[in-house]
Amino acid sequence: MNFHTRKWVKPEDLNPNGTLFGGRLLQWIDEEAALYAIIQLENQKVVTKFVSEINFNSSAKTGDIIEIGLEPVKFGKSSLTLRCEVRNKMTWKNIITIERIVMVNLGPDGKPAAHGKTQLEYVKDRMPDGLD
Predict the structure, then answer these.
(1) Is residue 57 included in any domain, yes or no?
(2) Is 20 in contact with 13 (CB distance < 8 Å)?
């Protein structure tokens, strides 16, 4: 699992219990999943279709740094399924695990469209020679 994004937990990210608000964390995860899918599928028109059971294991507090990790699980005809883990960089505890986030590739008409991808690609491998 690659951890692509770090977030610094600030007072505005907390719930009334003084810990990281789950809704804020899910917002961050959804945004990161969308960015990951956009880059992999090479299309800015991508939407979240499905998020499986969300398992909160621990939390974070003000000042903690969390890391969001994503990995591809399956490339469908018009979708990309991801697995997500979030960990507290300060305590190394797992905060949340989501087994499946399904992102759907959209065509110009806003409907699901085939993306033609079958495996993980790295941006560096798509660059013309001399640009890396």
Answers:
(1) yes
(2) yes
Q: What's the token pair of residue 119?
A: 């495996």
DSSP 37: H
**Structural domain contains residue 62:** yes
pLDDT above 70 for 127: no
CA angle, 122 then 79 then 72, to 5°: 45
Based on the number of CB atoms within 10 Å of its own CB, is 13 exposed (0-12), middle (13-18) or buried (19 or more)?
A: buried
Give the range of the structural domain holding residue 19, as residue numbers without chain letter. 2-126
Q: Which residue has the tokens 């798509």?
A: 126
CA distance 121 to 41: 9
Give pLDDT tens digits for 12-33.
Answer: 999 999 999 999 999 999 999 9
- Is residue 132, in this structure, part of any structural domain at all? no
- Contact, 84 vs 36, CB < 8 A? no
Helix (H, G, I), strand (E, B) or coil at 94: strand
Which of 2-6, 64-68, 97-101, 108-112 is predicted least confidently?
2-6
The answer to whether residue 132 scores a pLDDT higher than 60 is no
Does residue 58 lie within any of the structural domains? yes
